[in-house]
């Protein structure tokens, strides 16, 4: 999929049209569910209807398994975007979802890292160009709400996939399968339960999977900004002493912002009106995109991390943020979640014998350990190295960036790693 579809403005939905479509979809879903009886037993029950759970439910049902997806539909548009790398786009394409998203996504052709720590040892800016890998773009930036909407539509159309619009309140696991109790009443049994319910995972807890949690003295501020100058499909990550400040290209001279700052500063910035906030962002971006104005909802997310001791338990597996959480640096989280989905679909295989058999789960666990551990460690180390403000640490980070600048094969290896193409 090297050549991505070009942007087609005539297909871009307005925010109002998108909201209208979302509401109409909710009514249609409620109507459909009122007429769809709850199955008592399925092959696989996926819990959690975020992007990862939706993708997993579609992928597993495409293998021929009888699947139920348990969880309320995704929330309203919050203006957050995700950068999805080439590996994830291939997965979405395989799931038949990419064609609906291509017209509203924005390509990431160049990724630039600028050391803005003000430290004594500062590396020069480093840029990575997709062309060096023979690609038009490393990936595409897309609003999370548009992504979940497209996945949700595909899930609704999928034969063999039942949507259950309810929270799970209890999960139990045994040698023969798992059971989910629903907030709306009733239970559902499955040979395999997949926990995709985010960081507070009932499946993970029921399986007794240890989760290590930690927090960072940072809050991520998010916003969409319109600007006077074009971004030329380039994403820029300024590494500041409080964390990365990243602008990711969107359509029509707009960019999405993810800015990690100390919680107290985040509170001050969040309290600014849109005009003052845009002026601060413009200054922080060294005015490289010209005058800026806020063009969508703003958000704030406290930064934390989570890693699990194993990805499976008896008759269950955990994927997405049920299994790994780390700060949004280098666009890794959801990309990793989609690779969980691909690995789970491969481990469970096409329909035939038991999807929750211990050997299949062991193969999924083995497949995910290294990828998840290395991404979690790399993001954590980079983030902490910025916060440390310690010369030897700055030097190590700076030398790493300079090596990437100078050594072509190393840079290309790092780019392929970032895209998830080596995973
Ligand atoms: C500011 C920010 C920017 C980011 N940018 C990027 C990026 O550019 N690229 C990237 O790859 N990643 C990015 N990420 C990470 C990415 O957003 C997450 O990895 C991804 O959203 C996780 O998806 P998920 O489906 O695993 O979890 P969630 O999105 O949390 O979905 C979990 C779902 O489960 C449901 N649920 C919860 N409990 C229950 C229950 N008991 N029963 C049923 N359902 C339940 C919830 O309602 C929700 O719908 C970013 C994260 C942040 C915070």
TrEMBL record:
Among the GO biological process terms of this entry, one is: ubiquinone biosynthetic process
Q: Which domain of life is it from?
A: Bacteria
Its pathway is: Cofactor biosynthesis; ubiquinone biosynthesis
One Pfam family matching this protein: FAD_binding_3
- Residue ranges occupied by any FAD-binding domain in the UniProt entry: 42-374
Q: Do the record's keywords include Membrane?
A: no
Give the GO molecular function terms: FAD binding; monooxygenase activity; oxidoreductase activity, acting on paired donors, with incorporation or reduction of molecular oxygen
Q: Which UniProt keywords apply?
A: FAD, Flavoprotein, Monooxygenase, Oxidoreductase
Q: Which InterPro entries match?
A: FAD-bd, FAD/NAD-bd_sf, UbiH/COQ6, UbiH/COQ6_monooxygenase
According to its UniProt record, which cofactors does this protein need?
A: FAD
Q: PANTHER family this protein is in?
A: UBIQUINONE BIOSYNTHESIS MONOOXYGENASE COQ6, MITOCHONDRIAL
Question: Which family does the similarity line name?
Answer: Belongs to the UbiH/COQ6 family.
Protein name (database record) = 2-octaprenyl-6-methoxyphenol hydroxylase
